[in-house]
Amino acid sequence: MTKLTTGVALLGASIALSGCGIFGGEDGYFRDRSDDYQLADSLPPLRMPEGVKAPLQEELYEVPQTGTADLERGKFEVPRPQALAANVGLDRVKIQKLGNRRWVLVSQPPEEVWPQLHYFLRQSGLQLASSDVNAGRMETAWLTFKQTPETKDKFFLQVESGVQPDTTEVHVRHFSAPVSLPASVQVEWPAQSTDPEREGWMIDEMSSALAADSSGAAASLVAQAIGGGAVKVGLQEPAGREPYLFMGLERERAVATLVHALNSGAFRLHQEDTATGIFYVTFDKSRELSEEEKDGGWFSWGSDDEDTLAEEAEGVTLPQLMANIDTSTTAEPALFDGISGVGGAEATEIPGYLVVLRSANGLIEVRIRDTRGQPLSRGKTSELLMAIRQNLI
Question: Is 13 helix (H, G, I), strand (E, B) or coil?
């Protein structure tokens, strides 16, 4: 036993002494093979025997040309992956919230969402008392919850085109009444739901069902008329006048979605006065790249560059901005007339832009000027307004 143990120990020592040659290095058994693929080469095609006709073959996986330069082994760096598109990974169905209001946002046009809602109601056992596709309205028949047998309930669904193209908003309201109320009574729908919890229940159930139905294949030709084809948000470029965005939204929501847009992408919002509808922003396209890098997960390299433009703008106060506006301008429309504190200061070069929100003809109009209140070039105005348009929710 002692002799055997000694022999094994001697063998182990021999392997340990020669291990660097057997297992390591370029010629070792466990050498680094991570760069071997760079030495791979193509083999000549097989030759068929004389008298045998080769069948027509095509490359199943074509290898693209990468250039003729030789790569030094061990010096090759894996190329940086392309940034993901801005909308990759976004859910098709979302629940949006503004104050105490909630609605469902679907990344499909109304003509595709309308039949999905009908299917959801049927599957849920909710019968429709009325359905008006032109107005985008659905009203359920009365139903009773086990928890409250003394009352009966119904739901109202309003389907509208979304702020972004090919999107749909579904707004829900709930109404509760004593069970003794005659079924023939016409409901006057209140501005707010009777029970916000049951409204939330319907929104959650509906959004889950719409998210599960991801095909979007079925579409209703009739539902293409929802909302009369009205567009909620659009860019107007009238001849001879500065372009502007129009919003078919109530002011509260228009302000909320505009503030969101001015804090997204290449924009940064530094000062705001919702009472006068004036917002001070800076715009830098490099911010979009930095955000993509930060959201890149494992493949993120990030950026340590400071946003000097934003830092400079943060030192500007709202009174300074208002006083810097040139009151002698003849630009139309006159966006700053009647606002306290406008003008009077010596002209100062302030970076960024003024975004101005105004009500006109039953719509909300959004315009953009320089920090002196002067119109920009037509091309620049359209570029900035389209950037705002893409960030609206």
Answer: helix
